[in-house]
Amino acid sequence: MDVLSEMLSVSSVRGSAGARITAAGEWGVEWTGDRDAVVYAVTAGIAYLIVDGDTPRMLMPGDVVVLAQGSGHTLASAPSAPVHSCDNAAAVDARLRGAALALGDGGARTHILGASYSYDFAAPVPVFAVLPPVLHLSAPQLDASASDIVTILGRELAAPGPATDLLLDRLVDVLLVEVMRAWLSTDTELSASWWGVLRDPLLYSAVSKIHEEPGRPWTTESLAREVSTSKQTLMRRFAVFTGTTPGKYMTDWRMNLAARRLRDTDDSLDTIATDLGYASEFAFSRAFRRERQIPPGRYRSRSRDVGSRSRTRPSSTAEPAPSIAPTSDT
């Protein structure tokens, strides 16, 4: 059972490739914040990323940076460079033509690829909420496969062909997974969250069991037996790496699955309750309301309404960085 894949699926994370940015001389461009996450990969030259409340960061060739909460930000040749607002029309035109968004004057020295990640804001799993607001990985921290993905992205953006949008979006999804893998393997001071299950082999095994059979009447004792450890050890590892208990994780995951099915299917409450191990529709509804502070039927209506507005919002406002925004949502 691939835990990370399930987490991303439950959150409906979808990558959308944007455009190439080329820059020369003295330059600076500013984007206001929005809800979607943004990723930049520097393929040549240097740039500075400036985010309110954060020290300006120098981005070198091979670096990848993710703005997990879609914070307002500036890209510039230097922290003191003059800054202008993004030319949305030029950005969209460059995206359509497969051309680069040119910044500054003279021969391009800096090359940057940009993309964004949308996700269902009604989804209960906070994939991006528990990432650092600015996740900066240098080239040495990334696996060679991440560099290969960035190279292919650049080539496809420069020479679009049939099914380019589909290919680019899939590549951006793969890049996110590579970034997350690198972050998990290099950051030794992660705060306790559900990311912790990906860092501890024992927890990963335990959580995989829960994900494989969410409707099984698990107890901490039975789960510990399945992974050949003691109840006390399992509880201690959950507390250290996730900040929660096995029982709470089980309940949260069942509610995550229930929320996805309420949002994406027409399955009856009774069917969902049975599949997730609840004795009755009433027991499920009571548990869901206790955890989400809203009855499941009302959650279904509200989440679908939010999802519909998210899918139909215009591209000019859908992305936090207009210069890398796709022309349509995927």
What does this structure look like?
The chain is of the alpha+beta class and 330 residues long. It has two domains: 16-190 and 315-324, Regulatory protein AraC (Jelly Rolls); 194-293, Homeodomain-like (Arc Repressor Mutant, subunit A, Orthogonal Bundle). The chain has twelve helices and eleven strands. It has helices at 3-10, 88-97, 144-158, 164-186, 201-212, 220-226, 231-242, 246-264, 269-275, 281-292, 296-312, 315-318, and strands spanning 14-24, 28-31, 37-44, 47-51, 57-59, 64-67, 73-76, 84-85, 100-104, 110-118, 134-137. The strands form two sheets. It has a six-stranded mixed beta sheet. It has a five-stranded mixed beta sheet with strand order 5-4-7-2-8, with no helix packed on it. A hairpin with a 5-residue loop joins strand 4 (47-51) and strand 5. Helix 6 (220-226) packs across helix 7 (231-242). The longest helix is centred in the middle third of the chain and has 23 residues, at 164-186. It is elongated and about 70 Å long. The model is unreliable at 310-330 (pLDDT under 50).
